[in-house]
Amino acid sequence: MFDKCEYIISAVRKDQYPNFQGYSEFVFLGRSNVGKSSFINAIAKRKSLAYTSGKPGKTQTLNFYLIDGAFYLVDVPGYGYASRSIKDRLYFGEMIEEYLEHNLNLKMAFLLVDARHEPSQDDKLMYKYLKHMNAPVTVIATKMDKIGKTHLQKHEKMIKKALELAENDKMIMTSSEKRTNLDSVYAVLTPLIGR
Ligand code: GTP
Ligand code: MG
Is 158 within 8 Å of 118 (Cβ atoms)? Predict the structure, then answer.
């Protein structure tokens, strides 16, 4: 899909963000271990552009990946990781808030939720927060390979209802492992590149 994917920088503060040119940015938000980094690798078609782990809490900084010299995918630390200290949770929360605030380059926030489970309180809060910030949102349900086909529709409905998903916001059921429905993700992302 994309020819060139480059890791640019791991940032923890605004003055470290690389995008002075004002290229389009896409950010991937969600609970720790929901599959944000895996999703970035899947859409970039790279095995280990972003580091992934079976254990939650792997991504600890805002990681900027420049794709085809034209736009950025931004991986961020997950929220809702219970063993994290309160201090760390605040620190990561503020890091993400600082990123989302007044970010004119941000063309789409992808909110990742686990397709298997009812969205957590944190998921609901994050969706509300993004709406409050007027950020464009697409919900990505991850790991759908772990759900039987007959249950997919039920889970999709359950997630939409719990998040109180706005009519204009899209939700896409995906699997990074099986590369399911990534075409629908490209259909959202591609028209926003270079704007
Ligand atoms: P943090 O960096 O800790 O916030 O986590 P993350 O959201 O980046 O999750 P990560 O991509 O590291 O993936 C967490 C675990 O979920 C890993 O063991 C992945 O292999 C697994 N995983 C991710 N996507 C899928 C998927 O589509 N299907 C299945 N079965 N497992 C997946
Ligand atoms: Mg990660």
Answer: yes
Question: Alpha-carbon dihedral of residues 97, 99, 105, 110, nearest 10 degrees?
Answer: -70
- Looking at residue 4, what DSSP letter applies? -
Positive or negative torsion for Cα 149, 143, 42, 191: positive
Q: Give yes or no for a contact between 68 and 2, defined as CB atoms under 8 angstroms apart.
A: yes
What is residue 76's DSSP assignment? -
Compute the mean pLDDT over every residue in the chain, rounded to the nearest whole number.
95
Contact status, residue 144 vs residue 175, Cβ threshold 8 Å: yes
pLDDT of 62-118, one tens digit each? 999 999 999 999 999 999 887 888 898 899 999 999 999 989 999 999 999 999 999
Question: Would you state the torsion angle of the CA atoms of residues 154, 156, 162, 167, taken in this order, to the nearest 10 degrees?
Answer: -130
Joined tokens for residue 134: 């007027």
d(CA 71, CA 21): 10
* Residues contacting 20, CB < 8 A, separation 6+: none
What pLDDT, in 10s, does the model give residues 126-144?
A: 999 999 999 999 999 999 9
Is the confidence at residue 195, as pLDDT, over 70? no
Residue ID of nearest Cα to ligand 1 atom 5: 33
Q: Is 58 in the pocket of ligand 1 (CB under 6 A)?
A: yes
pLDDT, position 71: 96
Sign of CA dihedral 12, 29, 43, 178: positive
User: Quick one: which atom of ligand 1 is closest to the CA of 30?
Assistant: 7
